[in-house]
Structure to design on (501 residues):
């Protein structure tokens, strides 16, 4: 711990219990991968904007002047692919991050927890690559999808059992 | 508290203040219901996949080979119903969970807080049943929707008043 | 701090380290603006409902009886504008709020952190006004969008550097 407290003081021992703080390596790992996934999600907006410019598919009349497009358009397949990938992120990354935070607060085994966070986050990075950047034949996307899906389920199951008495 | 500290030590008394930890029963309750709602949101993906398979409505060309469908399709009413329910979850469950976490950190009355979390989460479970699983005539869906809506508003109002000095 | 502990006790000094608690003014600021943004997101649902009633554009058959509309309709431009604004909120506000929480847990400079939270949240409030309430010519919406976008990126970069050792 980098807070200047030694293990001998009771306070230091007690601080081991503050799971949602930087002094907990699992939380540090979570913070690192959360930042990476948030950046990835933001990049989806830029990818959508790039496809909109490339195909001149603007959804709002006030966006037309900037690009000298004659009218609003919807349903371009390239734009829609990136938007589906983005929506899939909202449906999976946000629950995964929230669930992982709650999982950390339940005090799991640190090695298991760090492993789950690393694999879950990496699978979502891979998911975006095979969905929105270089479309790859199935089952590449399904495998990436179900990896994070299974990890989120495991974390939820763990917390459910752990907190059943507070129902 | 199950951390081995007795109430006599000052540290134990101080730890009462760590609201975002398992030693706080409100947080335990939040963790239980968050897990349940996250699982519910993940199930929406499976319900969408089931409807896609049943109606052979695939949105991506790379998904066609698996199901021997001739072309991508959009707008099937059964698929769209589940997708609308899923989007409604993103729009309401995620803010509810985030808001409840912040509400807990503001140190509310434990009994009220646990009641709000239980009712808010149960209403969203009900919402999914009457929207995506067994479509029921209105106002079943509206009632479930506005229950969680009102609870989230109350929590936001409580925190706004409580933290106005930090604006 | 309003928890009755004086600065002289070691516990009080240690509690300075509990970043995710009301005793941290940055967290108080975060809690205030989170509540405001959550309320704003909930209002989007009401705006959508208002546009649906005004234009009689209902997406579910069970909603028709209430409004005596003959059939389900999709794609009304007024409804779709509010829905796009709402989706944009999901894509940007939720990552911003989650990222800010993690950023606070990394122990940033309090003045910088509070400034970033205030500006980022205010920009999103402005974004909704110029997108869904009074459509304003570009670049009003883009400026509001990229302000929060840049702040979220900065926070993510800060945490990445700060937690690189936990990768």
């Amino acid at each position: 711990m980098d807070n200047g407290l030694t293990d001998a003081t009771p306070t230091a021992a007690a601080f081991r219990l503050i799971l949602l703080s930087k002094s907990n390596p699992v939380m540090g790992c979570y913070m690192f991968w959360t930042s990476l996934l948030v950046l990835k999600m933001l990049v989806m907006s830029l990818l959508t904007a790039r496809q909109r410019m490339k195909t001149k598919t603007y959804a709002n009349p006030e966006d037309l002047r900037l690009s000298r497009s004659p009218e609003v358009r919807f349903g371009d397949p390239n734009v829609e692919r990136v938007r589906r990938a983005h929506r899939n992120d909202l449906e999976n990354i946000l629950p995964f991050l929230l669930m992982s935070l709650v999982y950390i607060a339940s005090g799991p085994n640190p090695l298991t927890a760090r492993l789950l966070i690393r694999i879950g986050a990496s699978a979502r990075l891979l998911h975006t690559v095979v969905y929105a950047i270089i479309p790859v034949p199935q089952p590449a996307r399904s495998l990436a999808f179900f990896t994070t899906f299974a990890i989120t389920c495991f974390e939820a199951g763990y917390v459910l059992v752990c907190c059943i008495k507070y129902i």
Q: What stands out?
A: Chain B has a mean pLDDT of 82.
